[in-house]
Amino acid sequence: METGMITAATTTASTTPSTSSTAKNTLNQDSFLQLLVAQLKNQDPTSSSAMDPNQMVQQLTSFSSLEQATQTNSLLQGLLEKNQALFQAQAVSMVGKTVKVDGSGFSLKGGQASMGLNLSAAADVTLTVTDANGNIVTTLPEGNLGKGDQTLTWNGTDASGNQLPDGDYKVTVTAKSLSGAAVPYTTSLIRKIDSMAFNTDGSISLYSNGQAFSLANVIQVLS
Protein backbone atom coordinates (compact mmCIF):
# COMPACT_ATOMS: atom_id res chain seq x y z
CA MET A 1 0.00 0.00 0.00
CA GLU A 2 2.74 2.39 0.84
CA THR A 3 4.44 1.71 -2.48
CA GLY A 4 1.22 2.44 -4.34
CA MET A 5 0.73 5.71 -2.50
CA ILE A 6 4.24 6.82 -3.27
CA THR A 7 3.75 6.01 -6.95
CA ALA A 8 0.51 7.95 -7.15
CA ALA A 9 2.05 10.96 -5.46
CA THR A 10 5.02 10.83 -7.79
CA THR A 11 2.79 10.69 -10.85
CA THR A 12 0.74 13.64 -9.69
CA ALA A 13 3.82 15.74 -9.02
CA SER A 14 5.25 14.95 -12.44
CA THR A 15 2.11 16.08 -14.24
CA THR A 16 1.67 19.31 -12.26
CA PRO A 17 4.38 21.33 -14.08
CA SER A 18 2.85 20.39 -17.44
CA THR A 19 -0.52 21.74 -16.33
CA SER A 20 0.90 24.94 -14.87
CA SER A 21 3.05 25.58 -17.93
CA THR A 22 -0.09 26.03 -20.04
CA ALA A 23 -1.75 28.44 -17.62
CA LYS A 24 -2.44 31.93 -18.86
CA ASN A 25 -0.15 34.69 -17.64
CA THR A 26 -2.51 37.50 -18.58
CA LEU A 27 -6.06 38.43 -17.53
CA ASN A 28 -8.22 39.20 -20.55
CA GLN A 29 -11.84 40.31 -20.54
CA ASP A 30 -13.18 36.71 -20.67
CA SER A 31 -11.07 35.73 -17.65
CA PHE A 32 -12.26 38.82 -15.81
CA LEU A 33 -15.91 37.92 -16.39
CA GLN A 34 -15.34 34.30 -15.33
CA LEU A 35 -13.73 35.41 -12.08
CA LEU A 36 -16.57 37.81 -11.38
CA VAL A 37 -19.25 35.15 -11.99
CA ALA A 38 -17.35 32.60 -9.85
CA GLN A 39 -17.10 35.13 -7.05
CA LEU A 40 -20.86 35.78 -7.14
CA LYS A 41 -21.73 32.07 -7.25
CA ASN A 42 -19.54 31.07 -4.32
CA GLN A 43 -20.31 33.78 -1.82
CA ASP A 44 -22.89 33.56 0.98
CA PRO A 45 -25.28 36.53 0.82
CA THR A 46 -25.97 36.20 4.58
CA SER A 47 -22.31 36.28 5.47
CA SER A 48 -20.65 39.44 6.68
CA SER A 49 -17.85 38.72 4.20
CA ALA A 50 -20.19 38.84 1.21
CA MET A 51 -19.32 41.24 -1.58
CA ASP A 52 -20.23 44.83 -0.92
CA PRO A 53 -22.71 46.08 -3.59
CA ASN A 54 -20.47 49.09 -4.16
CA GLN A 55 -17.55 46.81 -4.92
CA MET A 56 -19.70 44.84 -7.34
CA VAL A 57 -20.65 48.02 -9.18
CA GLN A 58 -16.99 49.02 -9.34
CA GLN A 59 -16.02 45.64 -10.80
CA LEU A 60 -18.81 45.79 -13.37
CA THR A 61 -17.71 49.30 -14.28
CA SER A 62 -14.14 48.08 -14.69
CA PHE A 63 -15.31 45.29 -16.97
CA SER A 64 -17.36 47.75 -19.04
CA SER A 65 -14.32 50.03 -19.35
CA LEU A 66 -12.18 47.09 -20.44
CA GLU A 67 -14.70 46.11 -23.10
CA GLN A 68 -14.91 49.68 -24.42
CA ALA A 69 -11.12 50.01 -24.51
CA THR A 70 -10.85 46.77 -26.50
CA GLN A 71 -13.42 47.97 -29.03
CA THR A 72 -11.72 51.36 -29.29
CA ASN A 73 -8.36 49.74 -29.98
CA SER A 74 -9.91 47.64 -32.74
CA LEU A 75 -11.49 50.70 -34.33
CA LEU A 76 -8.26 52.70 -34.13
CA GLN A 77 -6.30 49.84 -35.70
CA GLY A 78 -8.78 49.71 -38.57
CA LEU A 79 -8.55 53.46 -39.12
CA LEU A 80 -4.75 53.30 -39.03
CA GLU A 81 -4.67 50.62 -41.73
CA LYS A 82 -7.08 52.58 -43.94
CA ASN A 83 -5.13 55.83 -43.49
CA GLN A 84 -1.86 54.08 -44.29
CA ALA A 85 -3.31 52.66 -47.51
CA LEU A 86 -4.63 56.11 -48.48
CA PHE A 87 -1.26 57.73 -47.68
CA GLN A 88 0.58 55.17 -49.83
CA ALA A 89 -1.81 55.78 -52.73
CA GLN A 90 -1.17 59.54 -52.50
CA ALA A 91 2.60 59.00 -52.26
CA VAL A 92 2.64 57.12 -55.58
CA SER A 93 1.75 60.39 -57.33
CA MET A 94 5.19 61.74 -56.33
CA VAL A 95 6.96 59.49 -58.84
CA GLY A 96 8.32 61.75 -61.58
CA LYS A 97 8.21 64.83 -59.32
CA THR A 98 11.22 67.01 -58.55
CA VAL A 99 11.68 67.49 -54.81
CA LYS A 100 13.98 69.23 -52.34
CA VAL A 101 15.43 66.76 -49.87
CA ASP A 102 17.23 67.31 -46.58
CA GLY A 103 20.87 66.32 -47.19
CA SER A 104 24.21 67.46 -48.56
CA GLY A 105 26.64 66.49 -51.30
CA PHE A 106 27.15 66.73 -55.03
CA SER A 107 25.69 64.08 -57.32
CA LEU A 108 27.82 64.69 -60.41
CA LYS A 109 26.32 63.77 -63.78
CA GLY A 110 27.55 65.00 -67.15
CA GLY A 111 29.77 67.64 -65.57
CA GLN A 112 26.92 69.19 -63.58
CA ALA A 113 26.03 69.10 -59.89
CA SER A 114 24.16 71.33 -57.48
CA MET A 115 23.26 71.62 -53.81
CA GLY A 116 20.97 73.93 -51.85
CA LEU A 117 22.24 76.04 -48.95
CA ASN A 118 20.22 78.10 -46.51
CA LEU A 119 22.17 80.59 -44.37
CA SER A 120 20.80 82.03 -41.16
CA ALA A 121 22.84 85.18 -41.86
CA ALA A 122 25.19 86.54 -44.51
CA ALA A 123 28.45 84.59 -44.53
CA ASP A 124 31.67 83.89 -46.37
CA VAL A 125 31.23 80.33 -47.66
CA THR A 126 33.79 77.74 -48.71
CA LEU A 127 33.02 74.22 -49.94
CA THR A 128 35.39 71.27 -49.56
CA VAL A 129 34.59 68.43 -51.97
CA THR A 130 35.81 64.88 -51.26
CA ASP A 131 35.43 61.63 -53.20
CA ALA A 132 34.14 58.25 -51.99
CA ASN A 133 37.56 57.47 -50.47
CA GLY A 134 37.64 60.66 -48.43
CA ASN A 135 40.24 62.37 -50.62
CA ILE A 136 39.85 66.12 -51.15
CA VAL A 137 39.35 66.71 -54.86
CA THR A 138 38.76 70.45 -54.82
CA THR A 139 37.98 73.48 -52.66
CA LEU A 140 35.36 75.94 -53.88
CA PRO A 141 35.43 79.48 -52.45
CA GLU A 142 31.86 80.70 -52.91
CA GLY A 143 32.62 84.12 -51.40
CA ASN A 144 30.14 86.26 -49.49
CA LEU A 145 26.59 84.98 -49.74
CA GLY A 146 23.45 86.61 -48.38
CA LYS A 147 21.04 85.28 -45.80
CA GLY A 148 18.50 82.72 -47.02
CA ASP A 149 18.40 80.15 -49.81
CA GLN A 150 21.34 79.74 -52.16
CA THR A 151 22.00 77.28 -54.99
CA LEU A 152 25.60 76.06 -55.17
CA THR A 153 26.86 74.47 -58.39
CA TRP A 154 29.95 72.51 -59.42
CA ASN A 155 31.19 71.61 -62.88
CA GLY A 156 32.91 68.43 -61.70
CA THR A 157 36.54 69.50 -62.14
CA ASP A 158 39.23 68.91 -59.53
CA ALA A 159 41.75 71.42 -58.19
CA SER A 160 43.90 70.92 -61.31
CA GLY A 161 41.03 71.44 -63.74
CA ASN A 162 40.61 67.75 -64.62
CA GLN A 163 37.12 66.49 -65.24
CA LEU A 164 36.09 63.94 -62.62
CA PRO A 165 33.86 60.92 -63.28
CA ASP A 166 30.15 60.99 -62.52
CA GLY A 167 29.18 59.90 -59.04
CA ASP A 168 28.48 61.08 -55.53
CA TYR A 169 30.84 63.47 -53.76
CA LYS A 170 30.71 64.62 -50.17
CA VAL A 171 30.61 68.36 -49.45
CA THR A 172 31.75 70.08 -46.27
CA VAL A 173 30.46 73.62 -45.81
CA THR A 174 32.35 76.33 -43.93
CA ALA A 175 30.28 79.47 -43.30
CA LYS A 176 31.68 82.37 -41.30
CA SER A 177 30.59 85.91 -40.57
CA LEU A 178 32.80 88.99 -41.02
CA SER A 179 33.95 88.56 -37.43
CA GLY A 180 34.96 84.96 -38.08
CA ALA A 181 32.09 83.38 -36.12
CA ALA A 182 30.42 80.29 -37.50
CA VAL A 183 27.08 80.95 -39.20
CA PRO A 184 24.38 78.25 -38.82
CA TYR A 185 23.11 76.76 -42.07
CA THR A 186 21.14 73.88 -43.57
CA THR A 187 21.72 72.05 -46.83
CA SER A 188 19.38 70.38 -49.28
CA LEU A 189 19.43 68.36 -52.50
CA ILE A 190 17.28 68.59 -55.60
CA ARG A 191 16.18 65.15 -56.80
CA LYS A 192 13.76 63.76 -59.36
CA ILE A 193 11.91 60.74 -58.01
CA ASP A 194 12.22 57.69 -60.26
CA SER A 195 10.48 55.12 -58.04
CA MET A 196 9.48 54.34 -54.46
CA ALA A 197 9.18 51.40 -52.08
CA PHE A 198 6.83 50.73 -49.16
CA ASN A 199 8.79 49.32 -46.22
CA THR A 200 7.47 46.82 -43.68
CA ASP A 201 7.82 49.37 -40.85
CA GLY A 202 5.39 51.70 -42.62
CA SER A 203 8.02 54.14 -43.94
CA ILE A 204 8.40 55.01 -47.63
CA SER A 205 11.71 55.07 -49.49
CA LEU A 206 12.17 57.23 -52.59
CA TYR A 207 14.75 56.52 -55.30
CA SER A 208 16.55 58.95 -57.59
CA ASN A 209 19.31 57.74 -59.94
CA GLY A 210 19.76 54.68 -57.74
CA GLN A 211 20.00 56.69 -54.52
CA ALA A 212 17.50 56.04 -51.75
CA PHE A 213 16.14 58.54 -49.26
CA SER A 214 13.17 58.65 -46.93
CA LEU A 215 9.93 60.44 -47.75
CA ALA A 216 10.23 61.99 -44.28
CA ASN A 217 13.31 63.90 -45.53
CA VAL A 218 11.43 65.67 -48.34
CA ILE A 219 11.33 69.39 -47.61
CA GLN A 220 9.44 70.63 -50.65
CA VAL A 221 7.86 69.36 -53.87
CA LEU A 222 9.11 71.68 -56.62
CA SER A 223 7.35 70.39 -59.72
From TrEMBL:
The FlgD/Vpr Ig-like domain covers which part of the protein? 109-177
Q: Name one Pfam family in it.
A: FlgD
Region Disordered: start-end pairs: 1-23
Q: Which InterPro entries match?
A: FlgD (IPR005648), FlgD/Vpr_Ig-like (IPR025965)
For the keyword Transmembrane, the answer is: no
- Which stretches are tagged as biased composition: Low complexity? 7-23
Please provide the record's keywords in A-Z order: Bacterial flagellum biogenesis
- UniProt similarity note: Belongs to the FlgD family.
Role: Required for flagellar hook formation. May act as a scaffolding protein.
Q: What is this protein called?
A: Basal-body rod modification protein FlgD
